[in-house]
């Protein structure tokens, strides 16, 4: 099952099953962005809208993008504020759904593990962002991936594991550097905030370098 079909199937149960990765990343997302100023937001991998309403309450405009039509339908059914535009798109292709230098914040939430070419994504994000704009990434921590963890769900007939790529921390920071970003904050998030326990989420906040 390819990634798009898998998320279309997963959409029906995504919000209701226990999912520590989903829930901890939502906490990280809100804490990291609590003091970041933004108005025009591009949310990549909006899924069922777990972060969309929070963004919409703070932003003038949110473009919420996902590869899965079923995930988007769930997000729309939850809430469709007037300042949110939902868009189905494949982010491994040129980002024609956003104008150049139009966003001051881009979100990538639990999506880059499915993307092999990080450099392309960072390049497209750099084009879409205004000078000085922010790029937030929240991902399953590579430490968890080293242990064999990956996105998976039960479809009623068994466990479906999605195709995933392991990206090391340096893969993110180097792709950022090559595309004109500086790292503002890098944080690691543990289950139950137990620093003696298992690392689950990596969050990184980048900023596009100011043009001189």
The gist of it:
The chain is of the alpha/beta class and 212 residues long.
What does this structure look like?
This protein has a single domain (3-208), classed as Rossmann fold. The longest helix has 14 residues, at 20-33. It has helices spanning 3-10, 20-33, 52-58, 69-78, 118-128, 142-146, 169-178; strands at residues 40-44, 61-66, 84-88, 103-109, 129-140, 152-154, 159-161, 181-190, 199-208. With 212 residues, the chain is of the alpha/beta class. Helix 3 (52-58) links the parallel strand 1 (40-44) and strand 2. Helices cover 31% and strands 29% of the residues. The mean pLDDT is 93. The chain is built from seven helices and nine strands; from the N terminus they run H-H-E-H-E-H-E-E-H-E-H-E-E-H-E-E.
Supply the key terms.
single chain; 212 residues; alpha/beta; Rossmann fold; seven-stranded mixed β-sheet; two-stranded antiparallel ribbon; 7 helices
Record the SSE blueprint.
Layout: H1 3-10, H2 20-33, E1 40-44, H3 52-58, E2 61-66, H4 69-78, E3 84-88, E4 103-109, H5 118-128, E5 129-140, H6 142-146, E6 152-154, E7 159-161, H7 169-178, E8 181-190, E9 199-208
Parallel strand pairs: 1-2, 1-4, 2-3, 4-5
Antiparallel strand pairs: 5-9, 6-7, 8-9
Helix pairs in contact: 5-7
InterPro entries: Methyltransf_11, SAM-dependent_MTases_sf
Protein name: Class I SAM-dependent methyltransferase
Pfam families: Methyltransf_11
């Amino acid at each position: 099952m390819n990634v798009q079909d898998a998320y279309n199937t997963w959409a029906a149960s995504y919000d209701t099953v226990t999912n520590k990765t989903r829930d901890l990343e939502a906490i990280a997302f809100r804490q990291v962005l609590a003091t970041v100023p933004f108005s025009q937001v591009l949310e990549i991998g909006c899924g069922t809208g777990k972060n969309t309403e929070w963004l919409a309450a703070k932003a003038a405009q949110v473009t919420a993008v996902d590869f899965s039509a079923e995930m988007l339908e769930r997000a729309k059914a939850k809430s469709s504020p007037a300042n949110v535009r939902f868009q189905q798109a494949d982010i491994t292709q040129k980002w024609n759904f956003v104008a150049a230098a139009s966003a001051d914040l881009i979100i990538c939430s639990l999506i880059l593990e499915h993307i092999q070419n990080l450099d392309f994504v960072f390049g497209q994000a750099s084009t879409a962002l205004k000078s000085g704009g922010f790029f937030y990434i929240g991902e399953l921590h590579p430490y968890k991936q080293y242990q064999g963890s990956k996105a998976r769900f039960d479809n009623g007939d068994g466990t479906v594991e999605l195709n995933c790529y392991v990206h090391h921390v340096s893969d993110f920071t180097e792709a950022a550097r090559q595309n004109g970003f500086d790292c503002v904050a890098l944080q690691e998030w543990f289950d139950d905030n137990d620093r003696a326990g298992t690392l689950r989420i990596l969050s990184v906040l980048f900023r596009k370098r100011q043009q001189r």
